[in-house]
Amino acid sequence: MMTLSLAVRNLLRNRRRSLATLLAMAIGSTSILLFGGFSANINYMMHTHHVRTGGHLQIQHRDFFLYGNGNPSAYGISHYKELIAAIQSDEVLRDMVLVASPTLQFGGIAGNYAANVSRTIIGNGFVAKDINRMHAWNDFDVKKEEPPFALEGAPEDAAIVGIGVARVLQLCDALNIPNCPKPTKEAKPDSAGLPDDIAQLSDQNASDGSRSSAKSAPNPRRLDVLVVNAGGAPNVTAVEVIRAQEQGIKELDEVYMMMQFSYIQKLMYGASPPKATSIMLQLRHSDQIPAAIERLKPILAKFSADQPLAVLDFRTLNPFYVQTIRMFDTIFGFVFILIGGIVLFTVSNTMNTAVVERTVEIGTLRAIGLRRSGIRRLFVTEGALIGLCGAVLGVVLALALAALVNLSGLNWLPPGNVEPLPLTITVFGETRMIIGTTVGLICIAVLSAWWPAYRAADLKIVDALRHV
Q: Which residues have C-beta within 8 Å of that of residue 184, sequence separation ≥ 6?
């Protein structure tokens, strides 16, 4: 207690230098916490987006994740309705799972034959009402909301495409897409309408009800889509594009299409037993993922007799998310080391100056019986006090500045996004980050005071007393 009292008095004796050192500590702590809060917010936004659009978990054929893009229908899940029912009736999972929804991936060719253009596409069939329910998930209270999924309530043959698909297939005018460039020289169709061979195939498919007739009235939003069905035969349908949405990545934006799950299912499987390529599971909370996976294992075992099934979490399905978070964690560590180095030399310089100025005082304390360990303890305590006060002040400043930024309404456009995101910094509630930063800076301050304290304790009494 006496050591603490002396340490406080010594710091107050030279207020200007102590205040300058404390402010340096506080600014360093504030900078670390603000960057950490920014990184945490990016984590929460990406986490929320992936959970809203693909769920926490997906049940798939064991090989679908690695090989399914080549031939999705070959890795379909049979009896998927019974599997979903088993999950929803499980006494544990029914309280965890908010949404269990099938999805069907497909690939093919989309053509706007009136404009004589076509391109390869990949896409997914979704149950629209389930997607809108998933969009409501917001466990981290992020400010970004997902737009309503336009396929809910839309006709069965409705589709959503990427902006790039709409641009390549010359649908910009029909969909009223702003800032959509047109080719310098527009393609002149050699013949209007659907080619004869595709039209003949379309007529054959129309007879079994798997498509709407391609010879319907002209529609500037209508595309003809050719896919390969589960039997390996080509199948054609006509869809009406109701909206174009940016997908964030140019390569995906120029090939992506979303359709009604039931419609693409009939197109791919026809009269055969329908399948799904994935079952999306959205949980109430992300920390329930390990428990849900363990609970799913016996259920999946019952349905794996003729189809090996696997359950993958959203991190495995989205490696870019994991890589991004690791990158920000690395940058955070680098920033902490840089600022920690500045704090180390700042506090060390302050304590070295104090040792020089108080050499006679140190000699007097040693002469009246204070041991070397007492001198070391005194200077280390002063360093710890500076570190504690500076770190705590930094936490207060970081919380205040983060609140001001969050209330300012600022936006920013991160790489890969097509629309600005609200600029928010999440410091409040990040207890682990705050405690870790505070303890880390206090340890650095104590370490920086140790060497000056060791030098002070090693001074000879006679030399210290006659120091001028």
A: none
CA distance 416 to 282: 24
Give the alpha-carbon dihedral of 295, 296, 300, 302, to 10 degrees: 30
409 CB contacts (<8 Å, ≥6 apart)? 422
Helix (H) or strand (E) holding 108: strand 97-112
Reported for 75-82, long-range contacts at CB under 8 A and 24+ positions apart, including other chains, are 75/277, 76/104, 76/230, 76/275, 76/276, 76/277, 77/102, 77/275, 77/276, 77/277, 77/278, 77/279, 77/303, 77/307, 77/309, 78/273, 78/275, 78/306, 78/307, 79/303, 80/275, 80/276, 80/279, 82/303
Minimal CA–CA distance to 202: which of 225, 228, 218, 169? 225
| pLDDT at site 449 | 85
Q: For residue 81, give every residue at least 6 positions away whose Cβ sits within 8 Å of its Cβ, in sequence order, or none.
A: 102
The pair of three-digit structure tokens given for residue 383, joined into one six-digit string: 């360093």
Amino acid identity at 101: S
Local confidence band at 3 (pLDDT 50, 70, 90 cut-offs): confident
DSSP state of 154: S
In 304-447 the beta strands, taken as DSSP E runs, fall at 309-313, 411-412, 421-422
pLDDT digits (tens, 9 = 90+) for 403-452: 999 998 888 877 766 677 788 999 998 999 999 999 999 999 888 888 88
Q: How far is residue 24 from each of residues 18, 30, 93, 199, 425, measured CA to CA in Å? A: 10, 10, 51, 75, 22
Residue 235 bridge partners (DSSP): 227
**If you write DSSP's letter for every residue of 266-291 in order, what string do you get?**
HHHHTTSPP-BSEEEEEES-GGGHHH
User: 345: closest CA among 309, 383, 314?
Assistant: 383
Q: Where are the alpha helices (DSSP H) in 216-260?
A: 250-253
- pLDDT tens-digit map of 349-362: 888 888 777 777 77
H/E stretch holding 292 reads helix 289-302
Q: Count the residues in the chain.
A: 468
The span from the CA of 31 to the CA of 210, in Å, is 60
